[in-house]
Inverse folding.
């Protein structure tokens, strides 16, 4: 029998297991909470509204809350239209949806069109038990989980006793009368503001925490959610105090069992490092420990207004008077390198052996870092800084350790917790995520052997055997890497390996690992790792003699269940035959369209780049995402949980960016081209001249085959290009920040500064993306000229308000990476820019971007999603490729299993 976990789904499942301590719910698709989203919905700009949802998913929201409750909006119609549009966007629809409304008719309308298993937010007994039962039964019939507000006929619950009474009554009705699965019940016992000056409010924090504790102990399998920012409304404008209040509250609430909610809260300081007086005062307020708690917090709050508290902490050098052991710990936790060499040398002189400094105070400090990171009280950039301090300390000790080793005949090496081999697989050049995971593992006393990028399977296995590693970790960003990981797993099975195999990277997923990789590697466990914050826990469990067997059994059972449910879900999805999908293609009124002719046809190299100008076009949100800080710039800088870490990271990024610009560290280059073009079926044919007599090349596109509701079309990129007989054009481009990033990063790594090495790569990626945005603007306004009257600012462009698109081969609108071969040949891209394609069609240098330009004003981004065998065969014939070769490149989007079909034949 399955464990009683909350199981939700969009296109992909989400299971709230015990190893997920807290679930963040994205709320920007809420007209009551986001002025921008409300404006987009009011103006019926659903394409831009979908981008808001996409941003949330890309920035790490595990569930997205959708609310259309606004007086000037037809909430029901807006909910239905938005959810239907969202369903056609696989990169958004993969996460579960929370249908949020105060109107039951809106919720039910949403339930009738949402796919997967959603959450209803919310139902309550405010209108009595009978309506509560009726709505709960409907939620159960629709297969939805529910948020239950602590709200009954008498009003919202404010005291612990009222919260418990209402939640217990609701739970009894739901589980005993309605038959609702208890794991699908999420209680919101109401977080109210404390320290308001009203005595009745003083116990609100305790009431929530104690009600949460009671719910988790007495209402089996139910969950608890809440909105944390409500707690500190009395201190709006004083972020350091709000930060401390939220950190203190969550410290106690999560321990009591709060496991999900919206934390828009103050930078969530490291609990143990909040100013002692401030922490005590906050704790007095949150836990209602003193009658004068509010007055004392108001008094102390004056010291922390604005940035006063942060600046005071920065200048506080009193820690330099502590013992050397405590100084080392403080330096590691706070990422301070200024004194590390002197302190390490002092510790060495006091120790019997240099090794004892590593195994003693340094590892003790890193254990503190690991504990804080695991508890969500430190963030990735801070951990990477800690690793920099550790590496510089070890560098001081290494010569002494080598001398001792030589004197002892080779003995005296320190014992690592385990040996991990990591590699970016063959054909892939992206390694930022892998490097971050390696740093975090090294911080936790694991020895990491990093083989770099584009590593073939045989080298991975040879080094793994030579070094007798305990774990192998594979990373990849592009979709062909998924197939290469399957190959590595198969080779590990063939050669008799039994060590755990970790899978990570942007295109990987638990479903892919369960369906494709784990079945190829029976002798050892294959485990998907979502991000750096999970890596240590996974590795620790896999290498623990006491935990390993149970952990591996649980993973295998979970993956078997994931694979079976995935197979059932895919079999249940209705897809159209290719002929029917083509019959439902996008219908464009081409008689009303007159394509603007570009300034030139053919190609042109663009090398007049100014790094300072490029910097103005940087979209900083993905930069923070690289560092696993989830949120949208600039709001992330004020985020209550992550804001302090985000501001520190941003300041250092701007400082390095200034050095990059001043020193011209990078040499950006680009090539752009335009060609006369027409759609021919599902393909786009390019011509040598305006007479369109001599074909130059063919760009092949793929068509959606998912069954659509109403009059929504099954789109292919060719639908946005005029058919034969009507003049049109298509463009293409390649941009790169340049190859210099690799050597600059390597120099930092040799100096034991992984933080700077990762920073320079992350900034190179941002520069390349900014170049793509900047060049597209120049194309629209000048080189092609169809948007000559644009007046958007660089920040406006992030929302893509302009006409036309720049889809990239290998991405959702055209998932076939081999189309890059045609694009690169047309542009002579390698000679023009130095960018080359690997055998897996990754671009090197990694900080490069390529794509097409399509100018029709009705064009938009979409996802092809899964395709059937009839389209794969048709596509292979059009491209003149073997079906097996096409299936290999399109493996992630095939809705059938070629191997099984071949065996059946």
């Amino acid at each position: 029998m399955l464990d009683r976990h909350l199981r939700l789904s969009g296109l992909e499942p989400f299971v709230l297991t015990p190893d997920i301590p807290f679930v963040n719910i994205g709320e920007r698709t809420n007209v009551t909470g986001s002025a921008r989203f409300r404006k987009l919905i009011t103006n019926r700009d659903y394409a831009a509204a979908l981008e808001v949802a996409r941003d949330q998913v890309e920035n790490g929201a595990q569930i997205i809350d959708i609310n259309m409750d606004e007086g000037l909006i037809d909430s029901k119609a807006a909910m239905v239209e938005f959810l239907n549009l969202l369903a056609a966007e696989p990169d958004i629809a993969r996460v579960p949806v929370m249908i949020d409304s105060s109107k039951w008719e809106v919720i039910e309308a949403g339930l009738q069109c949402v796919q997967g298993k959603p959450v209803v937010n919310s139902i309550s007994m405010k209108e009595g038990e009978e309506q509560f039962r009726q709505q709960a039964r409907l939620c159960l019939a629709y297969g939805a989980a529910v948020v239950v507000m602590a709200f009954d006929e008498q009003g919202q619950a404010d005291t612990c006793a009222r919260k418990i009474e209402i939640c217990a009554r609701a739970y009894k009705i739901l589980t005993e009368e309605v038959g609702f699965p208890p794991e699908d019940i999420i209680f919101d016992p109401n977080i109210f503001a404390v320290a308001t000056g009203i005595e009745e409010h003083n116990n609100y924090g305790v009431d929530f925490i104690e009600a949460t504790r009671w719910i988790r102990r007495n209402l089996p399998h139910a969950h608890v959610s809440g909105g944390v920012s409500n707690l500190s409304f009395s201190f709006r404008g004083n972020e350091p105090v709000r930060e401390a209040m939220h950190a203190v509250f969550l410290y106690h609430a999560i321990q009591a069992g709060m496991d999900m909610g919206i934390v828009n809260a103050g930078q969530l300081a490291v609990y143990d490092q909040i100013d002692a007086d401030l922490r005590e005062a906050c704790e007095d307020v949150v836990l209602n420990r003193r009658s004068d708690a509010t007055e004392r917090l108001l008094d102390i709050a004056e010291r922390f207004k604005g940035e006063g508290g942060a600046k005071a902490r920065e200048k506080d050098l009193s820690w330099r008077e502590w013992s050397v052991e405590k100084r080392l710990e403080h330096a590691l936790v706070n990422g301070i390198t200024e004194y590390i060499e002197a302190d390490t040398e002092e510790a060495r002189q006091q120790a019997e052996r240099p090794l004892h400094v590593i195994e003693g105070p340094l590892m003790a400090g890193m254990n503190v870092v690991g504990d804080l990171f695991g508890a969500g009280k430190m963030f990735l950039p801070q951990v990477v800084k800690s690793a920099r301090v550790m590496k510089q300390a070890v560098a001081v000790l290494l010569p002494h350790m080598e001398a001792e080793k030589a004197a002892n005949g080779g003995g005296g090496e320190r014992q690592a917790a385990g040996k991990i081999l990591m590699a970016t697989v063959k054909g892939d050049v992206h390694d930022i995520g892998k490097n971050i995971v390696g740093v975090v593992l090294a911080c936790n006393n694991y020895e990491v052997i990093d083989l770099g990028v584009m590593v073939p399977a045989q080298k991975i296995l040879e080094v793994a055997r030579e070094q007798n590693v305990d774990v192998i970790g594979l990373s990849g960003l592009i979709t062909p890497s998924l197939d290469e990981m399957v190959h590595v797993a198969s080779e590990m099975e063939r050669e008799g390996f039994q060590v755990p195999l970790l899978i990570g990277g942007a295109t990987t997923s638990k479903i892919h690992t369960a369906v494709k990789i784990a079945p190829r590697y029976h002798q050892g466990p294959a485990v998907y790792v979502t991000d750096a914050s999970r890596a240590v826990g996974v590795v620790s469990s896999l290498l623990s003699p006491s935990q390993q067997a149970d952990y591996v059994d649980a993973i295998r059972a979970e993956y078997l269940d994931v694979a079976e449910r995935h197979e059932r879900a895919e079999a249940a999805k209705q897809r159209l035959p290719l002929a029917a999908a083509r019959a439902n293609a996008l219908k464009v009124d081409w008689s009303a369209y007159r394509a603007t002719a570009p300034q030139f046809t053919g190609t042109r190299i663009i090398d007049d780049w100014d790094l300072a100008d490029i910097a103005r076009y940087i979209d900083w949100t993905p930069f923070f995402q690289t560092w696993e800080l989830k949120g949208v710039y600039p709001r992330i800088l004020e985020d209550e949980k992550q804001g302090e870490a985000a501001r520190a990271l941003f300041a250092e990024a701007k400082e390095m960016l200034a050095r990059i610009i001043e020193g011209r560290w990078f040499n950006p280059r680009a090539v752009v081209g335009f060609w006369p073009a027409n759609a021919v079926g599902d393909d786009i044919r390019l011509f040598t001249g305006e007479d369109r007599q001599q074909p130059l090349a063919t760009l092949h596109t793929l068509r959606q085959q998912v069954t659509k509701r109403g009059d929504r079309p099954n789109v292919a990129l060719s639908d946005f290009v005029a058919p034969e007989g009507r003049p049109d054009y298509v463009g293409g481009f390649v941009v790169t920040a340049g190859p210099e990033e690799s050597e600059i990063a390597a120099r930092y790594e040799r100096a034991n500064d992984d933080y700077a090495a990762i920073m320079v790569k992350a900034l190179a990626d941002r520069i390349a993306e900014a170049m793509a945005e900047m060049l597209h603007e120049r194309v629209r306004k000048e080189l092609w000229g169809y948007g000559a009257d644009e007046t958007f600012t660089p920040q406006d462009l992030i929302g893509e308000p302009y006409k036309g698109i720049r889809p990239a081969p290998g991405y959702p609108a055209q998932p076939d990476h081999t189309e890059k071969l045609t694009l690169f040949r047309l542009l002579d891209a390698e000679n023009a820019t130095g960018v080359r394609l690997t055998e897996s069609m990754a671009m090197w240098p990694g900080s490069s971007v390529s794509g097409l330009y399509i100018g029709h004003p009705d064009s938009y981004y979409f996802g092809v999603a899964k395709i059937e065998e009839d389209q794969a065969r048709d596509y292979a014939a059009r491209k003149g490729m073997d079906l097996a070769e096409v299936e290999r490149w399109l493996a992630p989007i095939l809705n059938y299993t070629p191997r099984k079909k071949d065996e059946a034949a």
